[in-house]
Design goal:
33 strands, 32% strand, 9-stranded antiparallel beta sheet, 6% helix, single chain, mainly beta, 12-stranded antiparallel beta sheet
Length: 545
């Protein structure tokens, strides 16, 4: 799913790694890659369910040991595009494609995944992954760094991604995006005669220790591109509904692999230990309760409330929701290949020989495993199914090349594959994320009302954060809002803070499994007097001293 160099993934066709060419066993194994997609088919819903989505996805440590910053993969996730009445406009790519995973620029990575938001505006010209997190770290040219605003007073969002509790293994992480009417639509944007819509696409979470809205993309994040390209006015998610029938996949760019050819000319491969969570029945439960919503699910109630009506509970009304059902099926495009191998020549693994995609029930998708090919290990109280590590280059029934599962004892010792280790490489201390410190910057003027404070999540980093009045946070000072418009937002958000507490249900709850938790260090208790209308913002994330 969503990847990044603080953001979205580069196409697999461009992911060429500078390793030596394949060689014979006496030269030692050659480093390579396993990459591709796991595809999840699901039933479509009516196009009228165009006001966001929600779902539950399993969170787990894909690899036994973090292999360094070449590792880039998402867990199961989706891409949410704008909905258009006719054909999609040409040369316009823009969506929300975040999710759980690991990225090449993750600075404080562990085996436990993190979550990023992954909003992409016009053709990757900017992207935003969370408050203070976007394309690059150049604050003099902040390409998406101000694209996300903090909404919740109870969750602290690190620029490196939202941490899950260390050791998370198979629990379900509930999330979704729904629009909230936090601002009014505008006829002009940044002094140009192009409009900005009134949709603040808001991330809702359902976890074991936090429920509710946490952050949102500012409408200006989407409409900003139209100030230079007015012909695209009204074409982005600030004003467009969402297309409800989205792809659901697991996108993998790099898992370490090794290859060697023995003295008889047979080529063998080994992949780093790669695992999936194993449920009580032995199957892997990976996606659950994937839903699309219309405006009756949440928007209408909140709009009425902000216009003077009764308070909205925030709970999604499922009479305005539709569920994508699963029937099983799906496939894999995972391939193992060495360096500089053209995409068309990359050889697939015999995925179906050890994994069978299944519908656990109509609302749940997962895999059934061939017990003869996989192994089971414990990860704390949970279990993991570890995929076959060894493969032999053979052919399929159509005489096309195929990586066929091999038993470890069948791999010749001369290949050196059995002795190879996939270890976390040594690395220099990670560079800190630092926000602007100049007195005139939006981080200092008007600046925080309390802090700085520190938090220490389980990834080994130290977060420095302060409390800002909601309307005075840096993202909103860079969202093309007048003081009056920000004050109107402040009033609306204070209503949310009073009524929408973190223990209530917002997303439809799961009907199976247990919920993953956010790293406890990121769950906040607002200081006395700052419980309503104030939010915590990270100003620095660096390595623990």
């Amino acid at each position: 799913m969503t990847m990044r160099p603080f953001a979205p993934i580069v196409p697999l066709a461009l992911a060429v790694l500078a390793f030596p060419l394949p060689c014979k066993a006496e030269d030692g194994p050659v480093k390579g890659t396993m990459a591709g997609y796991l595809l999840v088919p699901h039933q479509k819903v009516p196009e009228s369910f165009n006001a966001g989505f929600s779902m539950y996805v399993a969170a787990w440590p894909l690899l036994r040991e973090y292999p360094g910053n070449q590792f880039q993969t998402g867990l199961f996730g989706t891409w949410m595009f704008a909905q258009y009445p006719g054909p999609k406009p040409k040369d316009l790519y823009s969506d929300i494609e975040g999710g759980l995973g690991w990225w090449r620029d993750t600075r404080f990575a562990t085996e436990t995944p993190k979550f990023i938001m992954g909003g992409v505006t016009l053709n990757f010209s900017e992207w935003a992954n969370g408050p203070g997190a976007g394309k690059g770290r150049n604050w003099s040219k902040p390409l998406g760094l101000y694209g996300v605003a903090q909404l919740s007073p109870w969750v602290l969002w690190p620029p490196d991604g939202l941490n899950l509790k260390q050791g998370t293994c198979g629990e379900l992480f509930g999330y979704g995006y729904l629009p909230l009417p936090l601002t009014r639509a505008k006829a002009a944007t940044a002094g140009k005669p192009v409009p900005t819509g009134d949709q603040s696409w808001t991330l809702f979470l359902n976890t074991g220790n936090f429920k509710g809205p946490v952050t949102f993309f500012t409408p200006y994040f989407w409409s900003k591109a139209t100030t230079e390209k007015p012909e695209l006015a009204g074409m982005f998610l600030d004003s467009k509904p969402s297309a409800p029938n989205r792809a659901l996949q697991m996108e993998t760019q790099y898992v370490p692999s090794l290859q060697a050819t023995d003295s008889k000319g047979t080529t063998w491969a080994r992949i780093a230990p790669t695992s999936f969570p194993r449920g009580p029945s032995g199957d892997s439960i990976l996606v659950h309760k994937m839903m699309a919503h219309d405006r009756a699910a949440l928007w209408n109630q909140v709009k009425d409330w902000f216009d003077g009506g009764k308070a909205a509970s925030g709970k999604i009304d499922t009479r305005g929701s539709a569920t994508h059902t699963f029937t099983g099926g799906g496939g894999s495009t995972w391939r193992i290949y060495g360096p500089d191998v053209p995409r068309d020549n990359r050889v697939a693994l015999a995925w179906n020989s050890f994994a069978t995609p299944v519908a656990i029930d109509q609302e749940t998708y997962g895999y059934h495993w061939n017990a003869e090919s996989v192994s089971t290990t414990k990860s704390g109280p949970a279990s993991l199914t570890t995929l076959p590590q060894y493969f032999r280059l053979g052919t399929n029934k159509d005489n096309k090349p195929l990586w066929i599962v091999a038993k470890p004892e069948d791999v010749p010792a001369e290949t050196g594959l059995a002795k190879a280790e996939f270890r976390r490489p040594k690395a220099a201390p990670a560079e800190a994320y630092v926000t602007p410190e100049e007195a005139e910057s939006p981080w200092r003027k008007p600046g925080p009302v309390a802090g700085p404070f520190e938090a220490r999540p389980g990834d080994g980093s130290v977060l420095t954060y302060s409390w800002y009045r909601f309307a005075d946070q840096p993202a909103l000072l860079n969202a093309d809002l007048t003081p009056a418009e920000r004050e109107e937002m402040q009033v609306r958000v204070e209503k949310l803070h009073r009524e929408w507490k973190k223990e209530k249900d917002y997303l439809p709850p799961p009907s199976m499994g247990s919920l993953a938790e956010i790293d406890p260090a990121l769950i906040m208790t607002p200081p006395k007097g700052l419980e309503v209308g104030y939010v915590p913002i990270v100003t620095r994330q660096g390595p623990a001293r």
